[in-house]
Design a protein that fits this description.
With 474 residues, the chain is α+β, with helices and mostly antiparallel strands. The protein is built from twelve helices and eight strands. It has two domains: 1-143 and 249-474, no CATH class; 154-248, no CATH class. Strand 3 and strand 4 form a beta hairpin.
């Protein structure tokens, strides 16, 4: 039996490691390619790019690992079936479940490791990757400027730099068109040199200019009378322009960085974050209800004023015009105030609920990766025994089909859960609900030597489909 275990494990480990690292490389190239324009040719050290790629690798494991297990298990049992080794083992009285047992134990160990990896390593690498990418794109914003070309990514400004240092810290011969007033290019600034940097809290972007002039049109309120208008000219030795980062398009990275902070947490932190958010939401709802009741707490008492709430009993027509105007004004202010309060509270609660959903999604994600490894093994191993085809042909095709089912159902479930269409648990476990019964069905069929999905049947089906297509086309 030990010889059998060694044979099965040896047949599995080779394809597993080959498939896993190949998929990691492909996914890494795809991931890095999205940021290639922001990384290449901008004076970044190669060590920074390598570090960014290194931190992105763990985030790709949830995609590469299930596919590697599915494909390697298919190839292993397909090759054993193709070489009639499975037939020989079954004829000697060894069931398919006993043959699968060492691999099931191996995949269970991989699944447990994947759980701890997802709980500890992936949150840390997510944080490091997003932080480093944010630093690259925002700490070195001058790297995005190209010599002799206007830079228009800052709303309300067009900036041209004729020369800059290799590290992007020193800018020379600057021309800036300021149209932040939305009245056209009413202000122009020329400077011999300058430098760009962000504030300590990354809230503002500063452009410090040296030895220059600024030209600004005078009395530009009426655009129709802007012909031959005078302008004011001033010189400066040093001038600092501050840009709000909210107007900068790369602020989306910062938004992404903090809007889903659950990506950076392990299970215990996610639980604490969930409890904290639920407490905040509950307290906010209580305050919200109390304040609304106070806004509209009109009681049948004599007219008086108490705690900024108007109580009145008398008929409105009995009031004087002055008192009516005061009452109407107070009511209008109260309505505007309550409307603004309701709107802001709804936005805040919507944001908090979304954060809470993301926290619950990340909590479930820690377990779904480990369970997906087991489910895809239960699909791959029996299918390989049924199809009896090794190599990279049929197993790769079938693996892609089932992996697409797994991946699309996972994404669909997560998006539906985030939008509130289905519950979080249903959305995050949707792919498992779909594939787990298939895995059990294929295991039962393979253990009973079923010929379903055999290569002969698939060939016949393809021929019939091809014949029908030709008839329909003619």
């Amino acid at each position: 039996m030990k010889t059998l275990h060694k044979l099965v494990l040896k047949s599995f480990l080779g394809p597993f490691f080959g498939t896993f690292f190949t998929m990691l490389f492909v996914l890494l190239m795809q991931s890095v390619w999205k940021y290639i324009d922001d990384l290449i040719g901008k004076g970044l050290e190669w060590t920074v790019i390598v570090e960014l790629a290194f931190y992105s690798i763990p985030t790709l494991v949830p995609l590469a690992l299930p596919l590697a297990i599915l494909l390697s298990s298919l190839m292993t049992f397909g090759k054993l079936g193709e070489n009639y080794e499975l037939t020989a083992l079954k004829s000697s009285g060894i069931s398919l479940y006993k043959i699968m047992r060492p691999l099931f134990v191996m995949v269970s160990i991989i699944a447990i490791t994947a759980f701890f990896f997802s709980n500890h390593v992936i949150p840390y690498s997510n944080m490091k990757f997003k932080t480093l990418l944010y630093d690259i794109m925002n700490k070195k914003l001058s790297l995005n400027m190209r010599e002799g070309i206007f830079f228009n990514d800052i709303e309300g400004y067009s900036i041209k730099v004729n020369h800059k240092s290799e590290d992007g810290n020193l800018l020379e011969d600057l021309l800036i068109y300021d149209h932040s007033e939305k009245m056209g290019n009413t202000k122009v600034i020329k400077a011999q040199s300058g430098k760009m940097y962000t504030s300590g809290n990354d809230r503002y972007l500063y452009l410090e200019l040296f030895d220059g002039y600024s030209y600004e049109e005078v009395d530009i309120k009426n655009p129709k009378k802007r012909v031959n208008l005078p302008f004011a000219r001033s010189s400066f030795k040093a001038q600092k322009i501050r840009f709000d980062m909210a107007s900068f398009q790369l602020e989306r990275s910062d938004e992404e960085r903090y809007s889903n902070a659950a990506q950076f947490m392990n299970l215990s932190q996610l639980q604490q974050n969930s409890d904290s958010l639920q407490h905040i939401i509950k307290h906010r709802l209580e305050t919200y209800n109390e304040k609304l009741v106070a806004y509209y707490n009109f009681m049948a008492k004599d007219s008086l004023r108490k705690d900024s709430v108007v109580y009145f009993k008398n008929d409105l027509h009995s009031f004087s015009q002055h008192k009516k105007n005061r009452l109407f004004k107070a009511s209008a202010n109260l309505i505007r105030s309550s409307k603004s309060y309701v709107y802001n509270t709804q936005r805040e609660l919507k944001y908090k609920h979304k954060k809470l959903k993301k926290t619950h999604i990340e909590w479930h994600r820690k377990f779904t990766l480990a369970f997906a490894c087991l489910v895809l093994f239960l699909i791959g191993a029996p299918l390989g025994a049924i199809i009896r085809k090794g190599g990279m042909g049929m197993p790769v095709l079938i693996s892609i089909i089932f992996f697409l089912v797994y991946h699309i159902s996972s994404i669909t479930g997560e998006k539906s859960a985030l939008q509130g269409v289905i519950s979080i648990s249903q959305g995050m476990w949707l792919s498992s609900f779909i594939l787990a019964p298939l895995g059990l069905f294929f295991s039962y069929k393979a253990a009973n030597d079923s010929s379903v999905f055999s290569s002969a049947r698939i060939s016949i089906l393809l021929k019939k489909t091809k014949g029908l297509w030709k008839v329909k086309k003619s």
